[in-house]
Structures are given as C-alpha cells and as structure tokens.
Specification:
The structure holds two protein chains of two kinds. Helix content of chain A is 0%, strand content 52%. In chain A, a hairpin with a 6-residue loop joins strand 5 (45-51) and strand 6. In chain A, strands 2, 4, 5, 6, 9, 10 and 11 form a seven-stranded mixed beta sheet that branches. Chain A has a four-stranded antiparallel beta sheet with strand order 1-3-8-7, with no helix packed on it. Chain A has no helices and eleven strands. In chain A, 39% of the residues are buried. By secondary structure, chain B is mostly beta strands. Chain B is built from no helices and eleven strands. Classes of the chains: A mainly beta, B mainly beta. Chains A and B meet through strand 5 of A and strand 4, strand 5 and strand 10 of B.
C-alpha cells in the first residue's frame, strides 16, 4: 500500500537549518507531483511547496520563498525540504503529500519546533 | 493569491443529521476544489476532488457541489466517525490555499 514516511524534524534555534526527508513507497513516485504542507499547533493547513514529477518545476508559498528549497530524488523515491533561516512561525507539523495538485496521499507528519 | 473562506468555523450536530459546509473562493476556481477530513493527531484524508468527485473508498454520504466561487460539502447522514475537522483547498493556481477549517462536533 501507499506509504509516505517523513523524517528529519526536531528542535532548532531561530536562524538555524533543518532538512526534512520523505520516503515514498507503494506507487510510482516518479510519475507524480509532490508537495510539503504544514500545520502549526492548533491551526489550519498551509501549503508550503510543490515540485513537478521530473524536477523541472517548483513553487513556494510566499511565507517560505527564498528560505526553503524543495527537491526530489526519483531514483531513491524520496522528497526533501531544505529549510534555512528558520523562524518561530515555522513551527509546525510538516506533511509530505502527493500525487496531484490536490493531495491523495499524506505522510504521518514530522514536527519542527523553532525555539531558543 | 486566491483566498478560501469556509463557513461555519464550527458546528454541533447529532448522529443522523444532514450537515452542510460551504467554501467561498475570492475568485472563480473552475471546480478546482478538494475537500479533506482531519481527525486529531492524524493526517488529513482526501474526500472529494474536482468539487464533486468522490475519492475511492469514501462513503457516498459525502457529496460536493458548486461552481465559480461557491462550493459545498454535504454529509447526508452524520455518522459517529464523521466528527472531525473539514478543510477545503483550491488548486486553480499556485499558491494553493486551504480554508480555515470547520470543526464538526457532537451535539
């Protein structure tokens, strides 16, 4: 069955960096868009970024543009999110999701906490 | 950016009730709308896409309708497992945005 498993979350100081990973299985990863979506504690959902199936197009929410970079390795069935210059307002559960511009598949999420 | 406004933000209902949640886009989105259900501590689950297409495996008591800027999610007969928070999401153009959510609670 389809599985998306995120990793890499944790506690980081403001201004720090973190790299999230998402391991995909159970579907043809290389055929589909993938996205990162986040949810701050007790808040709603916020789309963060997406990447096309072949790596040639990316898009970002204004709130993370210039600080976050999405990438993928289709040979490893993996999605990544490099997060730099982290701020307190980036604290959230980060979900890996796919496979279209709506989200059929979701991981269980990984918590990122930005605090001194 | 297209803003999505959901209403109500919360509602109380009983098992067996018909429940309607609305989502209004700040501009026309040509049925590029999805609905999700989220239970506490869990990832969201896709219910409908293209405004009215039911995702495989989702019970038929869930339905969606609408056009242009106004869309509706209807649960025809609320079941105990339906108490959750529901989100709409447009995918007409990036940035894709979600509504603020509607929490469906037990009356």
């Amino acid at each position: 069955q389809v599985q998306l498993v995120e990793s890499g979350g944790g506690l980081v100081k403001p201004g720090g960096s973190l790299r999230l990973s998402c391991a995909a299985s159970g579907f043809t990863f290389s055929d589909y868009y993938m996205s990162w979506i986040r949810q701050a504690p007790g808040k709603g959902l916020e789309w963060v970024s997406y990447i096309s199936s072949s790596n040639n197009y990316t898009s970002y929410a204004d709130s993370v543009k210039g600080r976050f970079t999405i990438s993928r390795d289709n040979a490893k069935n993996s999605l990544y999110l490099q997060m730099n210059s982290l701020r307190a307002e980036d604290t959230a559960v980060y979900y890996c999701a796919g496979k279209n511009d709506y989200f059929d598949y979701w991981g269980q999420g990984t918590l990122v906490t930005v605090s001194s | 950016d297209i803003q999505m406004t959901q209403s109500p933000s919360s509602l109380s209902a009983s098992v067996g009730d018909r429940v309607t949640i609305t989502c209004r886009a700040s501009q026309g989105i040509s049925n590029s709308l999805a609905w999700y259900q989220q239970k506490p501590g869990k990832a969201p689950k896709l219910l409908l896409y293209a405004a009215s297409r039911l995702e495989s495996g989702v019970p038929s008591r869930f339905s969606g309708s609408g056009s242009g800027t106004d869309y509706t999610l209807t649960i025809s007969s609320l079941q105990p497992e339906d108490f959750a928070t529901y989100y709409c999401q447009h995918y007409y153009s990036t940035p894709w945005t979600f509504g603020q959510g509607t929490k469906v609670e037990i009356k």
